[in-house]
Write a structure and sequence with these properties.
The complex is a heterodimer of chains A (about 550) and B (about 425). Chain A has about 550 residues and is an alpha/beta fold. Chain A contains 17 helices and 22 strands. In chain B, α3 links the parallel β2 and β3. The chains are: A alpha/beta (about 550), B alpha/beta (about 425).
């Protein structure tokens, strides 16, 4: 299946997020690798994904799961060689799957040669590649992101006797984007991978590139200017490539990252995700509709990226204190489940392994405006291991089968990069790809089905959205429209059966065709359209005039 | 439920849309547009502050207002169509309204609220007065928490009142209910109160909504049902209750709603109250009563005149209701001058008990009996005002306690009258 030539391919994409290390180990060293991932591309093709997003695979001391890059032009030896990556890229493209890779622009590892040079002396030519200070009092208005581990955004470098700036861990010094040489170098890094055939970058931590006194050092105009310059170069030299912004911000602050269609193609909609969980627990659509009402229009070539879970904690930065307390109490009763301002759990445990809720959340993920991202393992309902530190509990080996090491690796179990999930509910004997592939009604089969239905219509990726506001607030209903096609989505957020009356009079005469079974529902008339939905049930209807 | 059809289809549709709730606030109204706005805003604020996570609904049972009251109540809903501008709400707050008829009927309003509470499976409910000018957001929590958290079934309010406010309560309802039912409940006829769905459903299932309960005094019957049914009752101090000026002509309707309801309940509750002796305090959050001592202008002379006139004009009625000795004593004090006038506690208790017994005997129309009590109550109030004119809060409380003890002491007299009836 060749790649489409549509430059807006990302609007219709189903993205699958995976860490090379976690997916499949081809050489028995206990660590997933490029060849292993390549061997499992069939699984992704069957699932229906059209793009994979690979987490950082660069050489790194791995003190932040690869987000501490020590060499931008190579791959970590644990995952294979650059040639292995090239082969993976080719194999994915042959299957019609694009490849998105991480690009950490904001900072490097403190082990990166650039930083080693910079810290070696105050006169080093790379000294100005990072942000240095004689005091730790500059940029005081800037918040600390990793509150659980860091007490300052400045760290003391005993070698060069000065402080360096870091927005994340202290072993991740921020690059100095006021330095033109840094900007040029980072474009060269991106070009290196683009030349190889990489389809897109997920640009990490983009709000923090530039620092200015008296500001929050986030979302500064200078940062946008740098990002626009990268986009301009991308458009000038490549076609059909894409930039995805990681900017954990409120919608109004996110909007500038799209520019006039000249900055990012896509950005994560961070505030929506926790509100989907909140709406489900509250059994009330209000949090979801409110945040989407506050979401500004974006240029027609741009797209939101939606997700339920990812490799990080379920971030609660973009909620109010009241909402955060509620989310903690409802989804992370044990404090060991909490990390920074978030919840370090996977989708299935968050939803008490309730298949109906898992389906409903995925149904919303696939039908709300944006491109959905599925986190590896969530397609089979994998669990987590909160006894592992940091966010490692949601980064355990993929569970392929009930056999040796879950089919992930032939290594001795103690050599695995992380222990397998063993518990009776989520352990690999109970939750794995092989068994779910054999079961017609498994979550995996259901995920394949919903992705296929989503891909059957362009309306989900490109259509407009109009919320209906039925008096029953437990029902989240919206119309997706693209050209002559209209799809009605009705979600019951409640744990109990609900009746709802929808005002569809303007569609009088249309029949409703349920998109999963292609069954016909009664014709729309003058009266409110009455539907009953079971607990957590949802419908996708195609409206058709017959 | 005796008969669910009294709920309109439109109201049922609204209830379906609301669905199950944790908190229900009932608001009976009739032409309250002048006062209802601040009250519903305070209720909303109280819910959002005290119960931000709970599913809540405000149910307005309206008696056919023509001043736009229901619209003012429903207008404070918080949903995704109408987010609150100044208040942040985690979830939807419904405010719905139904019209139960033309004219205020507190019993029908209460029944509507109870039915809604049952259908919505509300865990904790309150009813708020549409006239409470100084309602505070904290009142919502004070009335709801004992139900929601502590498992009580009825929360009766206590207030900081002027010593001459609520005179019917202090001179008749409180002492008589205390003596007969053995429970020291200060505000048995409650402007605001909280209740559990358990109690609400039980009361709703009672027969008699189409006549007795559904008429006036349902709130007091509700209190008595909680007491006689063995439900957990407590009191919660709400704070200052601003005095609402009443016209003299309001007394008889008030007596119907309160004393009439009490007298009526005595018959069915006889097996309970006849076995009770003494009285017990209720669990109370905060103070069980606080009195304000500000000067208040009261026309005692007018009260005494109305008493004397009533005693003279209604002599033939009193001859049927009262014992000869009680009537003679009333006639004696009716002739006394202003300085000597005193309607003693003992005489007042005998009067009330004889009225209660006559009410049961239906010696004349029960409504006429209630009406005939009005001038006598005014006489008793006159004495209460004189006795407590310069009294401190403690003095007033002491006098109220004395009256209560008199009601308890003379309870055998009521039982004797009751038996003579049989």
């Amino acid at each position: 299946m060749p790649l489409t030539t549509d430059p807006l391919w990302y609007k219709d994409a189903i993205i699958y997020q995976v860490h090379v290390r976690t997916f499949h180990d081809s050489n028995g060293d206990g660590i997933g690798d490029f060849q292993g991932l390549e061997q499992k591309l069939d699984h992704l093709q069957e699932l229906g994904v059209s793009a994979i997003w690979l987490m950082p695979f660069f050489p790194s001391p791995l003190r932040d799961d690869g987000y501490d890059i020590a060499d931008y032009y190579s791959v970590h030896s644990s995952y294979g060689t650059l040639e292995d990556f090239r082969k993976l890229l080719e194999s994915a493209h042959e299957r019609g799957i694009r490849v998105i890779i991480e690009m950490v622009l904001n900072h490097t590892s403190d082990q990166h040669p650039w930083f080693q040079e910079a810290r070696s002396s105050q006169n080093n030519s790379r000294r100005d590649w990072y942000v240095w200070s004689d005091t730790d009092t500059r940029y005081k208005e800037t918040r600390i992101i990793f509150l659980d581990t860091e007490t300052s955004n400045w760290a003391w470098d005993s070698t060069s006797k000065s402080f360096y700036w870091h927005r994340f861990f202290s072993h991740q010094p921020d690059l100095n984007y006021d330095n033109p040489a840094v900007r040029e170098q980072m474009w060269n890094v991106m070009k290196f991978w683009l030349d190889m055939g990489v389809d897109a970058f997920r640009l990490d931590a983009v709000p923090y590139l530039v620092e200015r006194e008296g500001t929050s050092c986030e979302n500064l105009p200078e940062t946008h200017s740098i990002l626009k310059d990268l986009r301009r170069k991308l458009d000038e030299q490549f076609t059909g490539r894409m930039l995805l912004a990681e900017a954990n911000q409120w919608p109004a602050d996110l909007r500038p990252y799209f520019g006039d269609g000249d900055e990012f193609h896509m950005a994560f909609h961070f505030p929506l995700m926790p509100r989907m969980f909140m709406g489900l627990k509250l059994e009330d659509r209000k949090p979801i509709t409110e945040i989407l009402q506050q979401t500004p229009e974006i240029p027609p070539t741009c797209q939101w990226s939606l997700f339920l879970r990812n490799h990080d904690e379920l971030t609660l930065e973009m909620v109010t204190d009241m909402e955060r307390d509620y989310m903690y109490d409802m989804y992370a009763a044990s404090k060991t489940m909490r990390l920074n301002l978030g919840i370090r759990r996977r989708l299935a445990p968050l939803l008490s392994n309730d298949r109906r809720r898992i389906e409903l959340m995925n149904g919303m993920l696939m039908s709300l405006p944006g491109t959905p991202i599925v986190y590896y393992g969530d397609e089979i309902g994998m669990g987590d291991n909160i006894s592992l530190g940091d966010r490692n509990g949601v980064r355990t080996p993929m569970q392929w089968s009930g056999g040796w090491n879950a089919g992930f690796s032939t290594a001795e179990p103690e050599r695995l990069y992380a222990p397998l999930i063993h518990d009776p509910v989520y352990g690999y004997p109970a939750v794995n790809v092989v068994s779910q592939r054999e079961s017609e009604h498994s979550l995996l089969r259901w995920m394949q089905r919903i992705i296929a239905v989503r891909r059957s219509s362009g309306v989900f990726g490109r259509g407009s959205i109009e919320f209906l506001y039925p008096a029953n607030h437990r029902i989240l209903a919206y119309l997706r429209r693209l050209g002559k096609e209209t799809v009605l989505v009705v979600n019951n957020l409640s744990s109990s059966a609900q009746a709802v009356e929808l005002d569809l009079r303007r569609y009088k005469g249309n029949i409703l065709i349920e998109m999963f079974g292609n069954n016909i529902f009664p014709r729309v008339g003058d009266l409110p359209y009455l539907l009953t939905l079971g607990p957590y049930q949802f419908y996708w209807f195609r409206l058709r005039r017959v | 439920m005796e008969d669910e059809s009294f709920l309109t289809d439109d109201f049922l549709r609204q209830l379906i849309n609301v669905g199950e709730v944790d908190i229900l606030v009932g608001l009976p109204t009739h032409n309250n547009a002048k006062t209802i706005g601040p009250i519903v805003n305070t209720i909303r604020s109280g819910i959002l502050r005290g119960f931000p996570r709970e599913r809540a609904v405000i149910i307005n049972a309206d008696g056919g207002s023509r001043d736009g009251t229901p619209g003012l109540v429903t207008g404070i809903s918080i949903d995704d169509m109408r987010p609150a501008s100044s208040l942040y709400a985690l979830r939807t707050l419904h405010s719905i309204s139904t019209n139960y008829g033309n004219g205020p009927k507190s019993g029908v309003a209460l029944r509507t609220i109870l039915a809604a509470a049952e259908l919505l499976r509300a865990k904790a409910c309150i009813v708020m007065s549409p006239e409470s000018a100084n309602v505070q957001p904290e009142w919502i929590s004070s009335l709801l928490w004992p139900i929601y958290r502590d498992g009580f079934d009825l929360v009766s309010p206590t207030y900081r009142r002027h010593k001459f406010d609520g005179l019917l309560m202090t001179n008749l309802l409180y002492p008589m209910i205390r003596a007969l039912y053995g429970v020291r409940i200060r505000e048995a006829y409650m402007p605001e109160f909280g209740f559990s769905n358990r109690l609400g459903s039980q009361f709703l299932s009672q027969n008699g909504w189409s006549d007795g309960i559904g008429g006036t005094g349902a709130e007091l019957r509700f209190t008595l049902a909680a007491i006689t049914g063995g439900y957990r009752v407590c009191q919660s101090f709400l704070g200052e209750k601003k005095h609402i000026e009443r016209h003299a002509s309001d007394l008889v309707p008030t007596l119907r709603q309160t004393v009439g309801a009490l007298f009526s309940a005595l018959e069915s509750d006889f097996p309970v109250w006849s076995k009770v002796s003494g009285s017990q305090p209720l669990p109370t959050t905060g103070s069980d009563q606080e009195l304000l001592l500000d000067p208040m202008r009261v026309n005692r002379k007018r009260l005494r005149e109305m008493f004397s006139t009533g005693v003279a004009e209604l002599e033939s009625v009193f001859q049927v209701i009262l014992s000869p000795s009680t009537l003679a004593e009333l006639q004696r004090i009716a002739r006394l001058g202003e300085d000597d006038f005193q309607y003693s506690a003992e005489l007042w208790v005998r009067t009330v008990y004889e009225f209660a017994a006559s009410y049961q005997k239906s010696v004349i129309s029960r409504d006429h009996i209630i009406q005939a009590l009005a001038p006598l109550f005014r006489g008793r109030v006159c004495t209460f005002l004189i006795e407590n004119r310069t009294g401190s809060a403690n003095d007033v409380e002491h006098n109220i306690e004395g009256l209560c003890l008199e009601f308890e002491r003379l309870k055998p007299y009521l039982l004797q009258l009751w038996k003579s009836r049989e």
